Amino acid sequence: MSSLLIQSSTHDYEVAIGSGIRGRVEEILDKDYQKVLIITDSQVADLYLQQVIEGFSPKGQVGTAVVPAGEASKSMEQYQYLLDVCVEERLDRKSLIIALGGGMIGDLAGFAASTYLRGIDFVQMPTTILAHDSSVGGKVAINHPQGKNLIGSFYNPVHVIYDMETLSSLSPAEVRSGYGEVVKHGLLSDPKWLDELLQQDLTQLSKDQIAKDLAKGIRVKANLVEQDEREAGVRKYLNLGHTLAHSIEAELGYGDITHGEAVAIGIWFALKLSKKKFQTDLPVKDYVNWIIRNHFPVDKLNKLDCNSLINRMKRDKKTVHEVINYVLLTDTGFPCIEPLQDEELLQELNDFLKEVRRHD
Amino acid sequence: MSSLLIQSSTHDYEVAIGSGIRGRVEEILDKDYQKVLIITDSQVADLYLQQVIEGFSPKGQVGTAVVPAGEASKSMEQYQYLLDVCVEERLDRKSLIIALGGGMIGDLAGFAASTYLRGIDFVQMPTTILAHDSSVGGKVAINHPQGKNLIGSFYNPVHVIYDMETLSSLSPAEVRSGYGEVVKHGLLSDPKWLDELLQQDLTQLSKDQIAKDLAKGIRVKANLVEQDEREAGVRKYLNLGHTLAHSIEAELGYGDITHGEAVAIGIWFALKLSKKKFQTDLPVKDYVNWIIRNHFPVDKLNKLDCNSLINRMKRDKKTVHEVINYVLLTDTGFPCIEPLQDEELLQELNDFLKEVRRHD
């Protein structure tokens, strides 16, 4: 088991990465909890819930709450349901919530933990590659019908426990989704690592390779988050690709495309814009090849309308005074933020959608 | 206009106290906001909303959201409604929410501000004496059907603006309610001030006297909150009287008794317990006289059942591992926390209810 230490303004916490550690939560945590509530989704519950429960003693003190799998559960309704369970189970300020699942569960259960009794301890147990991103940095949230993550808090877990074995059950789309964010971390940090990533065939990754990539990705994210917990400055760079991605997800209806796949497509657009604005030698061609070779679902963009996408972007949390701020790169590892006027964006996005259709 | 400075882990903020300052918000704030949303209740809206709006220029940028007056609005439904308004009005991370009203509005609007886009700036504009307590210290929350303030955050305002003129419209019950918390602050700090307070006839207070008492009360609260923002230690003392008060409020149905009136009755019980446990010379007799002379609604306790009250206490946020922790006093200005076993509490509460009935 390897571990990374993440610093935050309220407390430091460890990310434990290992194989088969899902049954060792009680042992890994350095604090005793008399009451524990494991929150998970219907899919993950079938696969891993029992093993996590069995790692606790006595078993009687561990409650569970299962929500339907899928992004649609990151809703006000499920949030309320979880708060009701917390009250029914009589969780108190010394109790623990465990978020067992992908990013949806981490965000939803984390938001419940951050607001129940004004905040109780919670542990992130990511079961997807994608969640290497969301499980670190303390962003928790639910969606509003008008936009993703519009309701939430900054609230750090007390521990992140990452069992690599749980990644073996991921579908090809979920692997792609995870590597959308991994490659983003590559673009924000290290040209050499990025080159390696862009050579990968995502159906052929070894467990060791994934573990290595996750640890690197988490370190890149942690470096930015530790400098700027509340996203007043450098943390914004982590939104590379996300402005368009959130709009794509909202327009298609949450769940029709995975988050990381949408991010990967959003990054493609950001790279094109960066190249045009800064005449950089970013590896755009390699990037597009990686997207196409690994079957990212670019065909889904056929359904989408340019103006509707831009309207969605205006509701993005990064949008200030209705000017859309875009994360671009002057080079690999050198992000910046550029305000884009409506007209320019409309033109560029139209061109981009045409280009994507050519690759469909 | 006088002002107090409150320190917090995220930022320091000022409490401005003055007469007729409700129309000067833009001038008092040291930051410009392009979009402002004033959240208030139906009662306060009729009296003061227009004057607050008129203090801003241009007026077009100021939106409003009005919820029904009364504690019942501190609900999940109104919270959702306010989030919907924030989205509709396209508030962004540089926008401001103003909570214009009593504690209910401060708590509700503050919770919305703390979770919309993971937190935007908000200003507390208390319009009751009671809210001198809730507007300082960063506790924001809504109620759950099973208990008061079970869902919330720690989130500090950027400014507190207290217009003394708005206190002239308070009913006798609201004045009593406010002084419940003022006297609590006296008990937690200063025997001399406490003596003065317990001599007061609450129907005869001058504006100057109220302003003086509010400033003192806020300072007492701020001293404890600055030491312990997240209620891990000394901040808990501010819950003097609140364990029983929250149970009384919940059992009667929120709104049937004001919060401060319930607190004053809860303090009576805490003083009796303190006297018995510590043989202190707390001014219990003067306190009871103050309660009776000022017509605190002790008769409402007739309806209540001892066991139901204790059951409610077990759901209190301060309850840990189902043992009820009570704030008591070893002397005026010297609070402590005592765990109480069910049996003892049942006995004492029964005796207390009998005594209260004798004064009815």
Runs of chain A with pLDDT <50, length 5+? none
Domains counted in the coordinates of chain A: how many? 2
Elements of chain A, N to C (H/E) = EEHEHEHEHEHEEEHHHHHHHEEH
The shape of chain A, in one word, is globular
User: Biggest interface and which pair forms it?
Assistant: A-B, 38 and 38 residues
Highest CATH level, the class of the largest domain in chain A: Mainly Alpha
**What structural class should be given to the helix and strand makeup of chain A?**
alpha/beta
Count of helical regions of chain A = 13
The strand order across the widest sheet of chain A is 1-2-9-6-5-3-4
Total beta strand runs of chain A:
11
Largest sheet: number of strands, sense, barrel closure of chain A? 7 strands, mixed
Level-2 CATH architecture of the largest domain in chain A: Up-down Bundle
Gyration radius of chain A, rounded: 20 Å
Distance between the termini of chain A: 42 Å
* CATH fold label of the largest domain in chain A: Dehydroquinate synthase-like, alpha domain
